[in-house]
Amino acid sequence: MKKLSIFIFILIYFGCSNQKEKSNNVLVNHVARQLEYATEIAEPLRDSILTSPRTIKNGKLKLVPSRDWTSGFFPGNLWMLYELTGETKWKDFALDYTLPLKKEQWNKGTHDLGFMMFCSFGKAYQFTKNEEYKNILIQSAKSLATRFNPKVGCIRSWDHNSDKWDFPVIIDNMMNLELLLWAFNETGEDYLKNIAITHAQITIKNHFRDDYSSYHVIDYNPETGEVQKKQTHQGFSDESAWARGQAWGLYGFTMMYRETGMKEFLIQAEKIAGFILSQPGIKEGKVPYWDFNAPNIPDEPYDASAGAIITAALYELGDYSEHGETYIKVANKLFATLSSDKFLAPVGENEGFILKHSTGHLPGNSEIDVPLVYADYYFLESIIKKQNMEKSK
Ligand code: GLY
Question: 150 C-alpha to center of ligand 1: Å?
Fold first, then answer.
């Protein structure tokens, strides 16, 4: 009897893990075929300026130049597909979409160098160990660091709308700190790490409300460092919780804990997770609408990019936190929703993007209920994190 139960246990256990691997393989295969299609339609549209797919505009694939904040995501997607499949052709494609971004290492006019360069050259270096890519990343970090104002204690986010803000810092900026911490680890240049830590600490101080939701934009006085305004740009209202902003905060502080080991960042990530998980439907795996306080929910557009960023962040935070089990459960549910027919585009449709239903900038009447390349990026990252988690069990 005992032998029979052990046999049944082994059968069920290996049956289940085999099943898991099979469904992961089906998804990776789906994604690979879709990105194959993406490269087929992007290739003839690429030129010396337009290099990276970003979204669909007026029914057509929209490519952007290397200076666009989203330029690093498509190459990053190809690198992640290389990681998932081990097929050299994806490495070749990834490199081909990475190299046009090289000149951005000198760009001091954007806080988004982290997104642009770490998602592209960061992965290129990870998989090739080519010293040239390492030097490009170090230069990129140094360019980004020039935007730091010691009076404010933050990196300046935007240069546009100078009639509206003197020194705007947006919650999204947390994501770009990873490049600085990576460069510190490679070079030992302390100031890069100090900038990242100070920026994150000042963000904790000024960007969050009592419920740990965050404002989108904080405008500082660059001479005194005082907070002048707390506003939104892409959210519903100054006091609302723009979904992607909450997602950037969650991911950003999780990453800061990973890179520094500083407990205050773990605590902040947990508090943000607490806010996000308290929003209707999230614990059940519902993908967020574009703003948690959008006035006409459920008749509002989704933001699958926010859903994918939250999923990737929760898989990682699940590893660090005592609430890990809850976070992983929610991540698995969100992942299942993103992988369902509602969000996962059929192969050969959606202009090659993996996910449908993201929202870029609703108040600007731009990119509403469309695919966005960064939703795909964090979905791919979630696939990898989920697979690694399952393998380590
Ligand atoms: N970082 C810009 C955005 O999330 O739309």
Answer: 24
Residue 14 in this model has a pLDDT that exceeds 70: no
This prediction's pTM: 0.95
Kindly report the CATH number that applies to the domain delimited by 2-392.
1.50.10.10
Q: For residue 169, which phi and psi values (nearest 5 degrees)?
A: -125, 125
* Atom of ligand 1 minimally distant from the CA of 248: 4
Taking only the tens place, the pLDDT of each residue in 82-98 is 999 999 999 999 999 99
In DSSP notation, 116-158 reads IIITTHHHHHHHH--HHHHHHHHHHHHHHHTTEETTTTEE---
Radius of gyration of the chain (CA): 21
Strand 148-149, strand 154-155: pairing: antiparallel
Torsion of CA 23, 26, 32, 36, to 10 degrees: -150
* Model confidence pLDDT, tens digit, residues 342-353: 999 999 999 999
Q: What ranges do the domains of the chain cover?
A: 2-392
Query: Which atom of ligand 1 is closest in space to residue 172's alpha carbon?
Result: 1
Instruction: Tell me if residue 227 falls in helix, strand or coil.
Output: strand
Give distance in angstroms: CA of 13 to centre of ligand 1. Answer: 42
Computed over every residue of the chain, the mean pLDDT equals 95
**Annotation says 47 is catalytic:** no
What tokens does 4 get? 């029979």
